[in-house]
Amino acid sequence: MPIRSRTRRVPALTLVLLVLAGCGGGTGGTAASGSPPSPTVVVAPSAAPASSSPPPSAGAFVGTVEVLPAAARQRMTGVSWRPGCPVGLDDLRLLRLSYVDFDGAAQVGELVVHRAIADATVRVFAKLFAARFPIRGMQTIEAYDGSDDASMAADNTSAFNCRNVPNTKHWSNHAYGRAIDINTVENPYLPGKQIMPPAGKDYLDRRAVRPGMIVAGDVVVTAFKAEGFAWGGAWRTGVDYQHFEKPG
């Protein structure tokens, strides 16, 4: 989502976190009762592609961090990335992350982020999974031909996209892989008099907390804040409820 506002290859690491899910259902921006368990982290060299990892069970979180494979680079080039972007492909990482969908089922999605925030992002989503915070879907922006508008309309959670802040000539932090948007319909972006996406108009009353909404002090804001991210929902102008960023 819009915001205000190189290359040494490193060996691929697979970061696997196993966490017991919290008890209680996901109810919007509020955490499940009780404190979610702290993830146990095991880091080991990747011996096989992350896609070979088994799907998570109902009670376990699995997150992987991978240097962009050739297939991902090919999909991204000319769509979400192109020569001249402010970050190179070697500095980006492909994450595969467990999440709980709106039906309470465990799913696996993908995000692309800058390598500097990859491990922190995994830790954040481990906490969201443990708290059973519901996420509608999580696909890289190529699934929407690089269109932020289409991704937002689909309520998609995404990260890297080499683009400007709308109506400006300034790079978005998404262009650096340092910003993440979550549940875009339930958490709209409000630049000026616009509502993005338009379906977000049903969620303008932030006191009526419903599943998938992010509100001050909830598990989502708290988890990102613990890793040094700023939340767009706290901005005075251009409020951006879906947006978290950690500029370099």
Overall geometric form = globular
**Whole-number tally of structural domains:** 1
Structural class: alpha+beta
Strand line-up across the major sheet: 3-4-5
Mean pLDDT: 83
N- to C-terminal distance = 17 Å
The counted number of beta strands is 10
Percent strand equals 15-25%
Percent of residues in helices comes to: 10-25%
Radius of gyration: 17 Å
Tally of individual helices? 4
Order of helices and strands: EEEHEEHHEEHEEE
Main β-sheet: number of strands, strand sense, barrel status?
3 strands, antiparallel
| Subunit organisation of the chains | single chain
Instruction: Note poorly predicted spans.
Output: 1-54
Q: Short summary of the structure?
A:
By secondary structure, the chain is an alpha+beta fold. The chain is built from four helices and ten strands, in the order βββαββααββαβββ. It has one domain.
How would you summarize the topology of this molecule?
Blueprint: E1 13-18, E2 40-45, E3 63-67, H1 70-76, E4 92-100, E5 106-114, H2 118-130, H3 148-153, E6 179-181, E7 189-190, H4 219-226, E8 230-231, E9 239-240, E10 243-245
Antiparallel strand pairs: 1-2, 3-4, 4-5, 6-10, 7-9, 8-10
Biased composition (Low complexity): 32-51
EC number: 3.4.-.-
Keywords: Hydrolase, Signal
What labels would you give this structure?
single chain; M15 family metallopeptidase; 248 residues; Zn_M74/Hedgehog-like; 14% helix; 4 helices; three-stranded antiparallel sheet; alpha+beta; globular; hydrolase activity
